[in-house]
Amino acid sequence: MEIKFDPKKGIWADEPESFEKLRRNWFGKKVKGGIILLEPEEALYAINLHNASCLEGGKDIGFNGLAKHFMKGVPRLFIRYNAYRDWRDRGLVIRNVEKARGKARKSAKKYPVRPVKSCKLKVKAMWYPDSMFSVSHDEEGKGLFERQWMGQFGVYKQTRGNLLKLNFLETVYLSKFFGLEVVDSSGKKMTHKKILDQVTRRREWTRQLYEVYEEWRNSGFIVKTGFKFGAHFRIYFPGASPVGEYKHSRHVLHVFPKEQKMLISEWARAVRVAHGVKKTFLLAIPKLKKKDYVKCPADFMAYRRKKQAEGWVRETPEDGPRYLLSAVSEDEHIGGVELASMLHKAEKMGLELILSISDRETGITYYILKRVELAGSKYDYYEIEWMKP
Asked: Is position 23 within any domain?
């Protein structure tokens, strides 16, 4: 295969055999005169995997010789190329982002909501500010634990002890909505606002965590710590109880504030831990406004396979794209705003978002993100699943 390059004209193929091979496999863009114009990733793939020669002024410049002309304009060129290469290696079509819209995809998954009715509790607890827990030994504590799964009564997964221990989120929530009386060590009453202010000074992203916790609790879900699974919370659907046979959660939820940035490898690790114990990973991005969205590195439109009478065949641009694919590496950081902006862009295009993560051995891991609807929610929630194209 032969392709040509000129810094002023770009990359193209006009030799008939090369033209036909590229056209047949949905590379590049056809223009008049039997010419196919190629994007850098397409040309690099042809050089690397199809032994194409790339001629500049009659001289074969090879992979690096071509790449160096685009590295300044496309700083993440190799990461983009590696994502492109892996998808193509699977026999699938992938192209640079164009104006084409995808076909209508599945709507957001709706989670069942059972709004909680507030009532007045006859429970008193003492606040331990440095430990960020409150403790109650009132008789109603056991009932509060068993009926609403608030706090931990006695020793975890044991029948010993008669104290109800409430973490700071539970303490604030019960104080705000159920009249839990909280006092400090001197007996002075503590308001939910004062408790939240104290914790906010000690723990980052406290308010974002609490806002998400409150919303899910008010929707009837049971929200407990997700520490063992690499996330902020584990979620039980309305009606779950700690009484009787212990039930395992099927969902974990991680809060990703719009101001925060996280190393891709850390983010992916949390998702993998959840999937490793057969739990759905939910991502919460709180308090996003229209003005928050930014331009984001949506790199490719990707196609998969469809089932026809003769079996499974690959999709092509004639079918319309299925995914918006963003290529990242394990050593990059990603922010809540950037991730939400990519999701927003995908939705506007009628596509589902895939993150293609290159590791340090150039292996690729894919995650697909899908919106979750919680009735009346002020925040954005997404299910994140590992996928194999």
From this structure: yes
Q: How many whole angstroms separate alpha carbon 162 and alpha carbon 151?
A: 12
Q: How far apart are CA 234 and CA 250, in angstroms?
A: 8
Query: Per-residue confidence at 103, pLDDT binned at 50, 70, 90?
Result: low
Is a pLDDT exceeding 90 seen at residue 193?
Answer: yes
Give the integer Cα–Cα distance in Å for 110 and 181: 35
- Tell me which range, 30-34, 109-113, 337-341, 354-358, is most confidently predicted by mean pLDDT: 354-358
Range of the domain at 138: 124-218
Q: Is 66 helix (H, G, I), strand (E, B) or coil?
A: helix
Task: Give the separation between CA 158 and CA 9, rounded to whole angstroms.
Answer: 73
Question: Which of the following is catalytic: 81, 236, 367, 381?
Answer: 236
Q: Higher model confidence: residue 148 or residue 168?
A: 168
128 is catalytic: no
Mean pLDDT of 125-147: 93
189-228 as b/e, with b when 16 or more CB fall inside 10 Å? ebebebbbebbeeeeeebbbbbbbbbbbbbbbbbbbebee
Do 141 and 174 touch, CB atoms closer than 8 A? Answer: no
> Does residue 117 lie in a domain region?
no
Judge if 140 and 233 occupy the same domain. Answer: no
For the chain, the domain total comes to 3
Residue 63, class by beta-carbon neighbours within 10 Å (0-12 exposed, 13-18 middle, 19+ buried)? middle
pTM score: 0.86
Asked whether residue 227 is domain-assigned, the answer is yes
> Is residue 56 located within the same domain as residue 95?
no
Decide if 248 is catalytic.
yes
Write the CATH number for 138. Answer: 3.40.1170.20
- Written as six digits, the tokens of 230 are 């690499």
Question: Is 293 designated active site?
Answer: no
- Residue of 165, 254, 279, 345 marked active site: 279
| pLDDT tens, position by position, 86-102 | 999 999 999 998 755 55
Q: Same structural domain for residues 236 and 364?
A: yes
Average pLDDT on 367-385 reads 86
- State yes or no: pLDDT of 149 exceeds 60: yes
